[in-house]
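ok so I'm stuck.
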Amino acid sequence: MSQYVLSQDIDRCIGCYSCEVHCKANKNLPEGPRLCRIYQVGPRWVDKVPRVAFSFIACFHCEKPWCVPVCPSGAMQKRPEDGIVFVDPEKCIGCKLCIYACPWGVPQWNPESSKAVKCDLCKDRVDRGLQPACVTKCITGCLYFEKKEFMPTERLKQHERMVSIYPPTDE
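replied:
not stuck anymore, here's the structure
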């Protein structure tokens, strides 16, 4: 299996939120659910100068996703061919167990459909050979979408540090 990874060069992000806006537009989401998020870090003082950073968070498409086994209807699934974790809206019963199970709060509640939604790396676009909307519309080019085995070492290390905050258990 070839696992896809969505990562960020935090030094290039200016916090414009274009990734969030284009994600919502691509998925036709109402006000409320945010499938990817920008978080402001700081301001903090670095060499006597105030600095602000912006951190991008979306689904990590975990090797052992916590959201999949808790789903009683089988709506939350992981594609075996590429590791993309997604919600099948036809099967979702709106129980919210996936929302509670994810340590990063990735699955979100869609008040219009009364179902869970989450980042699926724009799998419809990926299946057509395109990149996720957030990546293509990032004005600074700070977002990267690539297969894990082809990632530059530094970006891979950064990604693994983020994911290791809550390591999956075998239970």
